[in-house]
Design brief:
Number of strands: 2
Strand order of the largest sheet: 1-2
Shape: globular
Keywords: DNA-binding
CATH topology: 434 Repressor (Amino-terminal Domain)
Strand content: 5-15%
Structural class: mainly alpha
Radius of gyration: 11 Å
Protein name: Helix-turn-helix transcriptional regulator
Pfam family, one: HTH_3
Helix content: 55-70%
Length: 68
């Protein structure tokens, strides 16, 4: 899974700590997601989507082979 989280977070001028607090996760979780080392749960993805006011599929991009 690819992610645009870092790019979108910067657009909204949020640092990792601020986003983490609003999404009710740790800063380390945001960092892992941005480095594409962690696939977020649906709940976390929805929270981030609402915070950034972006559709989930605009933040998290799945490769075709990941969906099979």
């Amino acid at each position: 899974m690819k992610t645009r989280l870092k790019e979108l977070r910067a657009r909204y001028q949020l640092n990792q700590t601020e986003l983490a607090k609003r999404a009710k996760v740790s800063r380390q979780t945001i960092s892992l997601i941005e480095r594409e080392e962690l696939v977020p749960s649906l709940l976390i993805a929805v929270r981030i989507s609402k915070i950034l006011n972006e559709p989930i599929d605009e933040i998290f991009i799945f490769e075709e082979d990941e969906l099979e």
